[in-house]
Amino acid sequence: xxxxxxxxxxxxxxxxxxxxxxxxxxxxxxxxxxxxxxxxxxxxxxxxxxxxxxxxxxxxxxxxxxxxxxxxxxxxxxxxxxxxxxxxxxxxxxxxxxxxxxxxxxxxxxxxxxxxxxxxxxxxxxxxxxxxxxxxxxxxxxxxxxxxxxxxxxxxxxxxxxxxxxxxxxxxxxxxxxxxxxxxxxxxxxxxxxxxxxxxxxxxxxxxxxxxxxxxxxxxxxxxxxxxxxxxxxxxxxxxxxxxxxxxxxxxxxxxxxxxxxxxxxxxxxxxxxxxxxxxxxxxxxxxxxxxxxxxxxxxxxxxxxxxxxxxxxxxxxxx
Length: 320
Prior knowledge:
globular; alpha/beta; 320 residues; seven-stranded parallel beta sheet
């Protein structure tokens, strides 16, 4: 039975990846930072089948100890300070976790077992002020936030360890991927939760930033399969993962509100507090390399994703 180590297991992607790997017969070891209350909400249905252990990307010793004790064949580095607005408030912390944390894990792999296959969760935010449309593996990066800059460091250090030490280190440049397990601070979940609250009379309006901002949104459950496929290839590489379609925040609102019989224009208020200091305008992927090499295709379409998220929040509020 192969062992996979997942950092960031308590996050959206960690939970979906755990489900996928368990189905494929893996022993799953999840790494979570020590805190007085570890939030296991997204993985509580898996706790009997996985091991959740303490470790920290800011602590080199804990990573070395984890690799020596659990001897994984695959490591998926999904942990990060992953919220863009927070990266402006905590830029140094974002750099330490999201950038240097990758180096610490790669160093641990180099010392303990260079045969471990490593997946780095890179991000479309590295493209930032886009240099070409759509964005592919060779598109130059121009990050527009401390988060994007930190992810870019993590991406290039992964490439460097692959080329310098012959480690199987792969970088997945994932475009926005959402689900009912997305954090409430992210705009898509903020909308689906807001729609459910307004529908049940628990809120009167929904305050958002730039409605014209466009993203390439897919379903997280589809994207974790691409992560796994990357580590099954003969050679490590970088892959852009996305749908190849773009939709605006406004369009997301339209679909979400109309699903419950409401018009978004009656409830959505644009609030300058939610604008970014430097806006990322148009992110749209060209995932043709992943389609050709990994034989990967997204299964869930945009409208289906929005409805899935709204329905899940309606159900959650009904129970709560």
